[in-house]
Amino acid sequence: ATPTALMVGTGRGAQLGILIKGPEVLETTRRADTVVLDKTGTITTGRMTLGAVHTAAGTTEADLLRLAGALEHASEHPIAQAVAAGAADRIAGELPAPGSFTNVPGLGVRGTVEGREVLAGRPKLLADAGIDLPPSLSDAMTDAASQGRTAIAVAWDGAARGVLEVADAVKDSSADAVAELRALGLRPILLTGDNQAVADAVARAVGIDEVYAEVMPEDKVDVVRRLQAEGRSVAMVGDGVNDAAALAVADLGLSMGTGTDAAIEAGDLTLVRGDLKVAADAIRLSRRTLSTIR
Ligand code: ADP
Ligand code: MG
């Protein structure tokens, strides 16, 4: 590959909204035959809004929203921001400041609010603390998931107190982008920490039939490694802190410019506007640039 052609390719990339870490990245871009796509913030907008609220017997909606909202206010996760904003709105008052706060990657958040030990996240986060969901709340979670909505469970002082639904829209261009990637010969795979039913609903909406759901952040890397062990050349597209390791291990890491700094640093290539269709542009550009060199 001549340096000049690679420089031209890199410059053309910038015009398309693709930032390439170095000219050699075009070579791995050209070879990619599999594309692993994160869901939240990559296929979907990641701009979630708070929807239905379900309380356990004996819990008021105001308490549920205040305690969960206060805790989530301390997190940068798109789900957390939707919960905090929605809660502040609905209780029409200030959220209290949490006394302590811990982010549990891929599971949720925990901390103290008004002297109570609060947990918010996947049912597994509660189960790990020995807390089960009563049937009314687990039914609410199942219903939400079957319709493609994410639901999070909330507990304090050792008991489940409610379920909060958040909805996230698929980006307008995601289905076209998946179709373009497929037409370029890449095999699309959806990879997410979210639950199977939500993941399947989103996959159906964009035309992906291979789905890995409920994958912990540290296990996203293993999915990429397994595909590589099968001889695939893997492009990974992601936006979150939880995608950074997988982006680094993938043959080609594409990060959403709208995502977190950790993802952008871990990737080889940044899609500046966070538009998945530009991933297909990047593949086409690399193939064109490198074929003129040969
Ligand atoms: P994705 O892979 O789709 O970007 P994550 O790995 O970030 O998703 O999160 C996986 C799941 O963990 C979420 O769907 C949610 O159920 C739960 N979760 C993560 N962070 C939070 C949070 N701050 N509050 C509530 N739930 C959370
Ligand atoms: Mg994400």
From TrEMBL:
Subcellular location, principal: membrane
* Superkingdom, natural source: Bacteria
What name appears for this protein in its UniProt entry? Answer: Heavy metal translocating P-type ATPase
The keyword Cell membrane belongs to this UniProt entry's keyword annotation: yes
Q: Where in the cell is it found?
A: Cell membrane
Instruction: State the family named in the UniProt similarity comment for this chain.
Output: Belongs to the cation transport ATPase (P-type) (TC 3.A.3) family. Type IB subfamily.
Which species does the entry assign this protein to? Streptomyces salyersiae
- Answer yes or no on keyword Protein biosynthesis: no
Sorted keywords for this record are:
ATP-binding, Cell membrane, Membrane, Metal-binding, Nucleotide-binding, Translocase, Transmembrane, Transmembrane helix
Query: Which segments of the protein form a coiled coil according to its record?
Result: none
